[in-house]
Design goal:
CATH topology of the largest domain in chain A: TIM Barrel
CATH superfamily of the largest domain in chain A: Alanine racemase
CATH architecture of the largest domain in chain A: Alpha-Beta Barrel
Oligomer: homodimer
Strand content of chain A: 25-35%
Distance between the termini of chain A: 22 Å
Structural class of chain A: alpha/beta
CATH class of the largest domain in chain A: Alpha Beta
Largest interface: A-B, 60 and 60 residues
Number of helices of chain A: 8
Largest sheet of chain A: 9 strands, mixed
Order of helices and strands of chain A: EHHEHEHEHEHEHEEEEEEEEHEE
Number of domains of chain A: 2
Chain lengths: 344, 344
C-alpha cells in the first residue's frame, strides 16, 4: 500500500501482506520495560522498529536517549524532534554522512573503535563519542585493553569521550537464564575494565535478551522488546508478541492438503529461519518470495480469501521490508505508522 | 542514500551498503538470453529486479511481455509505459487491487487457479486470465485435471482464457542438468495435459534454472538471469554474476583476525543462507543486521575504509531491500536506477 493511502478500519480490509502491531501487547511491552528501566536506564534501539511514531511512544514514557544503527536512523530521529541524545552505536568512516550528523539539530554521539573512526568523527565536526569495546561478539569494538588508548587518542583529537559501549550479542539469545547471566557477567567484566581505563558517565550495553541481567550497564540498548519475535519468545521474558504479518489465503489444495498465503520471504526476515503460522494453527512448509505454503492443523480448513497471521522469526529485518505498520486492537485498525527510518 | 540524491562518479564514493550492477555482466546476460529466447519467447520476471529501468533494457531487446509477482509491479510497469502485455503470475482476491489493475492503460492478464480467483478477476473487470497449474511445486496452481473445468468456469464468467502457466520451481535449483531436465519434462507433461484441456495460445513457465531445457513452454518467465546470485551460479549456466553489494570495512581485529563490513542482513536476502565475500577473498563468519564479519584470506589485510564486494545468495529479496541500484563499469559509476517496484 502506498504511503498516504487511506487506512482501512477493519483488519480484514488491510492490503496484504501487512505488518500489524497488537495494541495490548505493544503497550504491555512499553510499560513493562519503562517500569523496570525508567528514563535514561533504557536507551531504546530504533533499528528494531525503524519508526519515529513508535520511538515517540518510548520518548513519552521518559526514554529521551535512543540507539541507532545507521545514519539514516539518526537523521530521521532528529528530524522528528527526537534528538535529545542520539547514539550511533556503529562505526562509520563516511565523511558525508558524518558531516550531516554533525550538522543536525540534535545531540549526536558516535561509536569509535579505532584511530580511523576517531579521525573521521573529529574531521566531520562531531563532538561526542563512546569507545566501542569487543566484549565477546566478534564484530565491531576494540580489544578491552585498547580502550584507554583510543579514548586518549579521541580526547587529543578534541572529542568528548562520554564512556564505553559493548554489545553482548553472543549472549542475548541463550535460552537458559543461568548460562545467559553467567556469560553476560563475563562480557560485562570486560566492559567494566575498559570503562575503568576510559572514564565517562556512560556504560551502554545490553539487549532484549539481557535487559534484566546486565548489572554493569548504566543504560540498556534493547529494541526488540517492543515488537518481539519467535526467537526472543524462546527466552523467559515478560514481553509479548506484538508484531505479526497478516496475509490472505490465495490458494488451497485438497490432495495433498496445503494452503498458500501471500506472506512471503520478501515480507519477513529469514536469517533466523522460517517464521511461524500463528493463526489459524498450521505448520509452515516453506516460504517463497511472495508466498507461504503451510498445512493447516487438523480440523482447520482455511478458505481462499481468509486471513492468516504469521509471527516473524526476527523482527528487525522483517520491519525493514515494510513501508507501514498498522496498530490494531483485535479486528479494529486504530492507526498506521510509516516505517520512516528504512535504508541507510 | 535518499532517492534523487546525486550519483557519485566513482564506486569508492558510493554510500554503503550499495547495490551495484556490473555493466559488462548485465549486458552479457541481457544479450545472451535475448539471442536464445528472442522477443515473445521470453517474458522476463520483474520480481527479480523490481526496476522499470532494467525492464526497459529488456523491452528494448524485444521482450514486450513481462511477468509480475505483485499488483505494485504491474502498476509500476504500466505507469512506466511498459504495459504491452503484463502477466500477474500470482493469485489475488483483493478487489481494490484487481480493480486498479483493470483500470490501467495496459494489457493485464492474471493467474487464476480456483473459482474464487476467477470470480474476483471477473468482478474487478479484468478481461484476460491464464489458468495456473500445479506442476509439482506445492504452491499456487490447480491440479492438472481441474484446469479444464476452471477454464470453462472462467469463460462462462466472461473472461478470455489465454492459456496456462505452471512454474516448475521445485526443479530450477537442481545442479545436475540431466536430473533437472528430467524433472522439468515431467512437470511440463502435466502442464501440456492441462493446456490440452484449457486451450489458448500461451503456455507460460520456466525460470533461470530451466530456460534452456523447457521444451513445452511457449514463453519462459526467467528473471534472475539478468542479475544472478550464488545459488543460480551453482548451475551450468552462461549467465554471469552482475549484482553485488558493496560495503565499507568499518572495523578490523588482529587477534583473532577478522574484519567487519557494513553490508548486513538488512541489505541481503537470507533465505538461501549467507551471501559470499567476493572481494577481497575471504570467508564469511556471520551476518548481523548491519554487519558482515569475515576472515580475510591469507595475505589480504583489509584496512578500515576499504571496500568489500559481496555476491548475494538470492537476488530477489536482496534487491527488495534497496532503493537504488548503481550501474558500474569497473570503478566508474555510470548510472543509478530506482528500485521503483518494491512493496505490494
Amino acid at each position: 500500500m502506498p504511503r498516504n493511502a487511506p487506512v482501512p478500519r477493519h483488519v480484514d480490509a488491510l492490503p496484504t501482506p501487512a505488518l500489524v502491531l497488537e495494541r495490548s501487547a505493544l503497550f504491555h511491552n512499553l510499560d513493562t520495560m519503562s517500569a523496570a528501566l525508567p528514563g535514561a536506564r533504557l536507551r531504546p534501539h530504533v533499528k528494531a522498529h525503524k519508526c519515529t511514531e513508535l520511538a515517540r511512544l518510548q520518548h513519552e514514557r521518559g526514554h529521551r536517549g535512543f540507539t541507532c544503527a545507521t545514519a539514516r536512523e539518526v537523521e530521521g530521529m532528529a528530524r522528528a524532534g527526537l534528538g535529545d541524545d542520539l547514539l550511533l552505536a556503529n562505526e562509520s568512516v563516511d565523511p558525508d554522512r558524518l558531516r550531516r550528523l554533525a550538522r543536525l539539530d540534535a545531540r549526536v554521539t558516535v561509536a569509535v573503535d579505532s584511530r580511523e573512526t576517531v579521525r573521521a568523527a573529529a574531521a566531520a565536526g562531531l563532538r561526542e563519542v563512546l569507545v566501542d569495546v569487543n566484549v565477546g561478539l566478534p564484530r565491531c569494538g576494540c580489544a578491552p585493553d585498547d580502550a584507554g588508548r583510543i579514548a586518549e587518542f579521541a580526547r587529543r583529537a578534541g572529542l568528548e569521550v562520554r564512556g564505553v559501549m559493548g554489545y553482548e550479542g553472543h549472549v542475548v539469545g541463550i535460552p537458559e537464564r543461568a548460562r545467559r547471566e553467567q556469560l553476560c557477567n563475563e562480557a560485562m567484566e570486560k566492559l567494566a575494565r575498559a570503562h575503568a581505563a576510559v572514564g565517562g558517565d556512560v556504560i551502554s550495553a545490553g539487549g532484549t535478551g539481557t535487559w534484566d541481567c546486565n548489572a554493569v550497564a548504566t543504560e540498556i540498548q534493547a529494541g526488540s522488546y517492543l515488537l518481539m519475535d519467535t526467537a526472543y519468545a524462546q527466552l523467559d521474558s515478560p514481553f509479548r508478541q506484538a508484531l505479526f504479518a497478516i496475509g490472505t489465503v490465495i490458494s488451497v489444495s485438497r490432495e495433498p492438503v496445503f494452503a498458500v498465503g501471500d506472506v512471503g520471504l520478501k515480507a519477513l526476515g529469514m536469517d533466523h529461519g522460517d517464521s511461524a503460522i500463528d493463526r489459524p494453527a498450521g505448520r509452515v512448509w516453506f516460504f517463497s518470495d511472495e508466498h507461504v505454503t503451510f498445512s493447516p492443523a487438523e480440523g482447520s480448513a482455511p478458505s481462499v480469501g481468509s486471513h492468516i497471521r504469521v509471527a516473524p522469526a526476527h523482527c528487525d529485518p522483517t520491519v525493514a521490508y515494510h513501508e507501514r505498520v498498522y496498530l490494531v486492537d483485535g479486528e479494529e485498525v486504530i492507526d498506521a505508522f510509516d516505517v520512516d527510518l528504512r535504508g541507510w
